[in-house]
Each structure stands twice: as structure tokens, then as C-alpha cells.
Amino acid sequence: MATMEKAVWLQDGKGELDGLLMEICEELQLSRARYDLAAQRYGSVNELLEHPRSPFHSFRPRIYPQGSMALGTTNKPVDGPHDLDFVLQLDAPYWHWKPLALLLALYEYLKSNEKYREMTTLKNRVVRLTYADDFYMDILPAYTDVISGGTCILVPDRELVALCHSNPEGYIDWFRSRALSVRRLLMEKAKPVPPQQEAAEKEPLQRGVQLLKRWRDLAFEREELAPISVVLTTLAGMHYRGEESSSEALSTILAGIVSTIDSADLNGQRIEVRNPSNLLEDFGERWDAKPAAYIAFKQGIRKLQKDWSAIVIGGRDTNKELERLFGEYVRKVLVKRAQRLQEARKAGQLAVTSAGMITGLGSGLTRIPQNTFHGDD
Amino acid sequence: MRARYPQFRSSTNHGTRIVWYGTLQPAPRSQAYEVRISYEVPFRPVVRVLSPKLQTWGNLRKQPHTFQDGSLCVHQTHEWNGNKLVAATIVPWTSLWLFFYETWLDTGAWEGEGTHPSAPEHRSAAV
Questions:
Q1: Is the pTM of this model over 0.90?
Q2: Are A250 and A117 in a shared domain?
Q3: What is the mean pLDDT of residues A269-286?
Q4: Contacts of A324 by beta carbon, 8 Å cutoff, 6+ apart
Q5: Are A122 and A254 in the same domain?
Q6: In the list A66, A158, A347, B127, which could disulfide-bond A168, CB 3.0-4.6 Å?
């Protein structure tokens, strides 16, 4: 696809806003170094799980990433660690075994390994490896769901003491298909960890998800009220209409979410956020246990839609508003943009249009000669 | 002037002095600023922003690179003389000033450089 370039001067309001969003998302990305380190660690764990002496070896283990690294929607965390989620999928006769056997086996196996022993903890559905430098890996053990077929899996759940339906690979395929329009090249498929795309190469849907997640990180003081990432990602994917412009994509997504919430409200229900590749899985079910979180989500997203509409319309304070929504990276991006313009100015590359708009050199435009801002001595 | 910037209009007094009024919008999402440029030979042109009112932030009392009377200072003495067209110099420099002013309001950093870089309102960002 055409990589978005960093404009020095700007064509129109929407182009300028989209350029800012692209640069904000670039700041939000995990650094290349962190990303590559995560991929490396994933590779090591991968090797261990597929090793001939691993208890999983005879069950055709397949290991693949899920979550934001697989979707290309990873953000730097506001504080705290970032994580890599992946699935360890086995073809095994789960109907013969106790529901939690696989999860416990994975836990025991990693615990018995000298390197990983101290890093290993058992969570509800995953075994977590916590690294020293603000990073952890969540490994989700799962069985191929031979009855549902396709890419469906069954996942042991400790609280429920049962196997639950899931379909992360199907989800990734769905999200990719939502993100891509016909003209665009296909993203490389997962296993191992896909190479990190530059922000300029990301699809508008991916950027929309990054921005929504960033908004969520800043807007909800109490973490337990914040909508979880898979809910935001699924809602974004559901309501995205193929817009090329990131700002338009976000507008459409927010309008769609609010509209769905309004309809559900009329029926006295909460919205459903079903996994499009496994309709038995409703990502919104956590709201049943926490109605306050659903209320907070509704309020938050409605406000975001209003705030976003105002930003799109434009006005003097919109950059401050952007910063309020998406944080300090906005300031950084604005400064960088001004610095780029300053470089172009010093190189004599700037002109103004008849409206006084700063742009590149061209016929019919007034070139900006060199000057030095001054003032009282 | 009007040839380059059709939205500018002028009024002349006394023959040696000319005053232009017009709007400049430095970037697509910027405001449109109403500016007034008054030029009286042999003095340097005086540039004022009429609206919207220029703002400051924090406890700063003035914007970067303005005179005490609030007019903008868009060049050093040696960078302009009576042989230069105001339309080809003062006006584009004013647009530049407005662009950097907006960034300065949004971020606190003046990225347009200029004289007296260590004055508090002139600080660039250490990005």
C-alpha cells in the first residue's frame, strides 16, 4: 500500500488531522527494540514447547500469537508492563481428560524448567511468564475444537472448571479482513510473530484501535471500569466501513458504537460484543458481573464521540483537545511537525498561498524569503 | 498586494502611508487571523494581529518576537528595506509567525528560532 509520508506542509484540514493521527500512532507504537525482544522471547518459549521431550510434543502443538501483536494494534502501556499473548493449541482428546489438566500440565512444565521457574504464574486461563523488564507473556493452552471445526478451540478456565469456546485465529482473520480494502496488499500472517509494521503502513482500522485503546488508558481512572481491549477492537472492527482516512474511520466507528448502545438501551439491554468468528463467545459478558463498568463505558464512549466530532469540525482548541484525549504524545508530534517546517524554511523550500497558507514551492505562490524573528532588544 | 492576496484591502492616508487589512490562515486547521499592516515611508511596516486576540500561556505576558506595543517582529533590521515588496516579505513572514505562534500556544515551545533564544517565551522544546 502507499505508505503515508510525513507531510511538511499540509493540503487540507482532514489531511492535516490524518497526518497528526498517524504520527500519534507512531509515538504509541512499541519501540522496535521492545517489539523485537518480545519476538525473540516468544521464539525461545516456542522452542521449549515444541521440544521432543515436551509433554505436548505428540499432540501436534501449534503456537501462534493472538492479541494486539497479532492484530498490529499494540500500544506502549501508559504505565506498567506490556505483554505478548499467544496460544498453544493441541490436537488432543480433551473429552477424556479433566478440564484443567492441560492448563496445569503447561504450568508444571514451565515450573520445572530452570530458566522459567521463577517467572511462571498460573492465571485463570493462561500461564504467565513475567520478565524482569516490564514485559510478560501469556500462554493460552487450548484444544482443537473438533466438533465446532475450523479454527475454533476449547480453553480451560479455572474459575468455571470447564472448557470454554474461543477462536482467536478466526478473530485475527476477521479483523484483517475488516481492516483491508480490496486495493491493499495482504499483511503477513502470524506465526511466528509478524514483523512490526511502521505506523505509516498501518491500516486506518488498526490506527483507530490504537487510538481507542489509548483513550481508554487515559480516560478511565479505575481500571476495573475500563472496557477491555478485545471489546474495543471488536466494536471498531464491526463498525469500520473501509474509510481510508483515519479521522473518518474513527468518526464512523464511534457513531456506530453509540448507535448500537442507543438501540440496546431502548430495549433495556446491554450491547453484545460477540466474537465474529465464534458467536458463542461474547466479549461483553464481563459487564454482566460489573454493571458499573458498562455504565462507565457508555458514558465514556458517548463523550468521546462528542469530543471527537468537535475535533473533526476544527477550531483553535482542537489540538489541546487531542492532547486531552490521547496524551502527551500529541504535544511531541506537534513540536516535531513545527521542527520539520522550520527545517524546510531554513532550506528555502516554503511558500505561501494567496490565503497565507504555508506550503511548498510552486507557481503562483509567494516564496518565503529567509528571515529572523526578532523583537525588542 | 491584492494580486497576491485578493482578500487584502487597503486604505491610504496622506499619500506616504498605506494600511492593509487582510486575513491569513497559516495551516489548514489554523484559525484565520485578521492582520493589519501599516507602512509609512521611511519606517518599517508595522504588523498587528487584530483578531482573534493573541493569547499567552502560563505567566508569560507576551508572545515570542513581538514588540512592547504588541506588534509582531518578523525580521531583523538588515533583512528588510524599502526596495522590498511588503507582499513578498512581510506577509509570508507573518504567516510563518502565526504558524509558530499556534504551535507555541499548543505546546509551549517556539520552534521558529529567532533572536534571544534563551528568553523564557522563546524556548524551543527539548524533544
A1: no
A2: no
A3: 91
A4: A307
A5: no
A6: A66
* Domain extent at residue A62: 30-195
**Chains A, B: CB contacts under 8 A, how many?**
149
**What number is the average pLDDT over the span A79-98?**
90
Q: What is the mean pLDDT of chain B?
A: 89
ipTM of the complex: 0.93
A324 touches chain B (CB under 8 A): no
Which segment of A171-180, A189-198, B57-66 scores lowest on mean pLDDT?
A189-198
A328/chain B closest Cα distance in angstroms: 10
Gap between the Cα atoms of A61 and B19, Å rounded? 80
Identify whether residues A187 and A247 lie together within a single domain.
Answer: no
C-alpha cell, A311: 475535533
> Which DSSP state fits B72?
B
| pLDDT at A271 exceeding the cut of 90 | yes
Provide the 8-state DSSP code for B107.
H
Question: Residues A276, A315: one domain?
Answer: yes
Q: How wide is the angle at C-alpha B8 spanned by C-alphas B30 and A349, nearest 5°?
A: 55
Check pLDDT > 50 for residue A190.
no
| Total count of domains within chain A | 3
C-alpha cell at A132: 524482569
**Gap between the Cα atoms of B77 and B106, Å rounded:** 29
